[in-house]
Amino acid sequence: MDVFILDTKEEIGQKAGKIYVDFVKAKPNAVMGFATGITPIPTYNYMAEECAKGNVSFSQMTTFNLDEYCDLPKEHKNSFYMFMMDNLFSKIDVKPENINFLDGNAPDWQAESKRYADAIINAGGIDVQFLGIGRNGHIGFNEPAEEFTDEAFKVKLTDSTIEANSIYFDDIAMPRYAMTMGIGSIMRAKKIVFVATGKAKAEAVKEMIKGEVTPHCPASILQKHNDVTVFLDKDAASLL
Ligand code: F6R
Q: Does the N terminus or the C terminus of the chain have fewer Cβ atoms within 10 A?
């Protein structure tokens, strides 16, 4: 892992965003993996700004998001689909037909997992995957567990994740289940850009980088990937 400790979220967003922008300039039909949450917003802002300035076009890019809530309409304001539309996709020239999400309302999650795995393979595999981390060490919605998963699956969210994300739900109760890409699908990405900011992530970041590789801290598996760029602020890095 290459670990960079930077001063501000904006600086991290510029560095992480530049990796995406430079990659798409070199390979316009790149296949990009995205995450949701507070952490990636400065990265997405940088990408949108570069696109608005005419410095890059995302018109041939294909995207796959990591996860989506179950039992929540796709167009609900808190769906991850809407998050990506609001924070990135509506601001860049990505083609709607090139945007891929897991369907959290699919009647058969195993069939949905297979559909997503096939779509990733047919697109040529994910070139660059963005990752944030949960306070409990989750990546995507791979919560601490007894074993590492492979392809996408339906997960029961932990109390820690429900506590962290329920602040966004002011009209309905936060869903208790989600569909997430599995650890295997994340690890098959050719390159991983990982970002963590804030003190609340410091313990999980320490376990990820310095702890043993264990499904009890799903992010620790990244120690075994050969191309991970980690951007941290001083708070997230404070226990290293
Ligand atoms: C969401 C995802 C999650 C988040 C993590 C951190 O798509 O992949 O693993 O990255 O929960 O969320 P924030 O950035 O809101 O702290």
A: C
Is 76 annotated in the active site? no
41-52 and 9-26 are packed helices; what angle lies between their axes, rounded to 10 degrees?
50
136 belongs to the catalytic site? yes
Q: Is the dihedral of CA 9, 10, 13, 14 positive or negative?
A: negative
- Within 6 Å (CB) of ligand 1, which residues are found? 35-39, 66-67, 80, 132-134, 138-140
Q: Which residue has the tokens 């289940």?
A: 177
Catalytic residue status for 138: yes
Q: Give a yes or no: residue 36 inside a domain.
A: yes
* Domain coverage including residue 196: 2-233
Read off the pTM: 0.97
| pLDDT tens column, 188-207 | 999 999 999 999 999 999 99
Domain assignment of residue 239, yes or no: no
Q: Of 50, 112, 127, 143, which residue is the catalytic one?
A: 143
Q: Which residue type is seen at 220?
A: S
Q: What is the CATH number of the domain that holds 162?
A: 3.40.50.1360
